[in-house]
Structures are given as structure tokens and as C-alpha cells.
Task: structure prediction
Amino acid sequence: MQNNLQIGLIGLGNVGLQVAKELVNNKDLENHFSLKSILVRNVNKYNKIIDNDPEFLGNSSMIKNLLTENPKDFFKGNFDVVVELIGGLNPAKEYVKTALLEKKHVVTANKELIANHFSELIKIAKSNKMKLRFEGSVGAGIPVIEVLTDMLKQNSISRITGIINGTSNYILSSMFDYSADFSKVLLEAQKLGFAESDPTDDIDGHDAKYKIDILGSIAFGGEIPLNNVSVKGIRDISLKDISHAKNFGYTIKLLAITERNANLISSRVSPALIPLSHPLANVNENYNAIEIVGNLVGNLWIQGEGAGKKSTASAILGDLMGIYNSSSGDVELSEGSLDFIDDLEIKSKNYLRLSVSDEFGVLAKIAGIFSNNKISIASVMQNDPKDLTGGVDLVIMTHASPEKYFIKAIEQIESLSIVRNKPISIRIHE
Result:
């Protein structure tokens, strides 16, 4: 049996505290890991937090003795693995690079860091013969990176589709189930700890962008630049859209998709109407689900809690155990560049909600614009009750067309005097 891995922990937020508790309280981990140092920004702040946390089970004095505010003192520690849990790009990148260059393995849940500097960090780890593990960066406790890396040994991956942001999924699920307003559900999600005080990254799609970028880079063997991932969040989704979707037999989810067709890769994050019969339609609350399509395995589904301190701590400890047992495989990225297709070239069906004047000839004008842009209308629904602007809702479902044609048509429709508000469009995923 090898000696314990000596652990240096950076960050003592919600996830960091949970990891520290497991390392000092979990007797099953004593023969594997020893927590030796914790780098924080403010020792006094965390002394108080530790003192007021009963879950340290009498280990609070020992934990407080491990705290330091000085990065230089921290990196002088004689430990084997650095666990980075502060998030963001700086100083996280500096700390991770320093650890790898000083021959220390790294475990992180920092999706933003990995997505922005994937290739660079993988190269540094490889050249220094160190392990860089980041299972917790996608799907929290769902072992999707481990599964994907293992699948690539015998499968060629063509597509990954996922609900990979617990906050947005909780909001959309609650709006659908309880006919609750977006702002009200967001406030509830913040109170429950499913959403941050600043929820921008979640509801604007950036969190999901980082995650699908990481999965796509692994699946297709090369770093996908973040500017190649198109992003649209859920801010504009209203109860009207939820209600109209129900009437058509759909729900609305924030989907992240990365796929390869004829060696051209596309990646996107956007709300989507999903048929109620589709498996993704039944993924609710803060749960995540990911579908991986391989040429041999077919469609593989992974589902579980995609957010939370305990599920993320589980992923961190799993990465540590993989390093301890030398059982986790390395992520390989090719030196060659990938080829991409612009999201505007992707064909999709679309939902469109308009507030229009209640007058003769409205539909004919809109249908004419769609026809001129080579877009076929599948169905139309009009709600007679007028809104606050005096307009009525006109909901249109289209057949599949390239996104660039649809956007051009929307721009032309929005310029019409009969259109009262900004059009709301959502892709349809079937």
C-alpha cells in the first residue's frame, strides 16, 4: 500500500469546506489522504466560519492551524496534490500552473479555467508528468468526463447533448410545473442555494458554455475556442412561452450541444422546445442529464444532481482517489486544429412569439417574409386577449431552415409597424 497523498487545498467556500470536512472526518479516507495546508484570502474570516460549523466534529482547531493567506508559504508545503476550488481565471490559473511546474498533481472544479486554458494546462501537466483532473467542472458528481474518456478508447463520438446547468433547469422546471414567474422562481432558487447572488453566468448560458466546451474538446480531441460556442440564455423566457409550449406538447429547457458532422464541429447553448415525450423533458429541478452518441455504444445517458457542494465534493474526492490508485486516464488533445461550422449554418425548427396589431393582413405580411427567406411555416396559433401594448400573441412554428435565414426573417419582421414588442424565438429540439 502506498503512502497517503498529502493534500494542499486552495479555497474554503461551500465546496472547499465540504472537501475539508470529508478529508478530516471520513475515516475511510484516512489511509489515502492527509490534508496539510489550506490557502485562503482571509484567515480571520475562516477561523470564525470553522468555529461556527459543528460538522468539523472536534477537528476545528486542527483545521484552523492549516490556514494561511500567503501563497508563497502555501507552495512551500510538502504535499503531492493541490486542490483548487476558488474558481475564476485569476489567481486560479497562476496557482494551478505553479503547482504543476513544482511537480504537484492538480484537482480542480474550475470550469472557466479549464475551458479558457484547456490545451495549455494539459501540456504543462503532461510535460511535467503530473495529473490534471477536473471531473467536478462538469455535472458536479456525475462522472461524465470519466465515462467520456473511457468511451473514446473504442468509440468515435458524434454528438453530446445536455442539460448541464442546474440553476436554469430549476427555474424552467418550476415555471412549467407551477406556472410561476421567472423573477419569483429565480429568487426562490437563490434562497435554496441553487443560484448565486449574481446569477448571470447561469441564466445567460455562460456556465453551460464552459461545460459543453470542455466536453466537446475531450470528445473531438482538440481545444474548442470559446468564441466558437454560440450562447443564448433564458432571460427572455416568460410564462407565455411556457404556456404556448405546453399547448403544442413541449417543455422548454436550456440545452448545450456539441456535435461533429463531416468533420465540422458546432457547439451551442440555447433554450429549446423539447417534446414532452423526450427523455430530456423529464429532467427537472437542479438535475443534469447528458446524452453521448458513439458509433459503437449508440446513445448513452448519464443523469444526476448537477450542482451542490456535496455532489461536487464527491467528484473532487473521486479525482483524488483516481490519482491515488493511478486509475484515471489522461485527457489527450491533438496538436492539429479542429474545423468548425458557423452556428448560423445549422438547420433547426423554430418557435416564434410575436405581439402584433389586431388587424387584417398581419399574418399574410409575416408569412410573405418567411417565404421570401425560404422558411416554411408548420403551424400558427393566435391568442385573442390583448396584452398591455394592445397587441395579441401570434405564435408560429417553422419547419427546419438554416439559422441565418431565420435570423434575417426575424429582423425584417421586427421592423414591421404591426409588431409591438421584441420577437421571442426558441429553437425546437426533437
The mean pLDDT is 93.
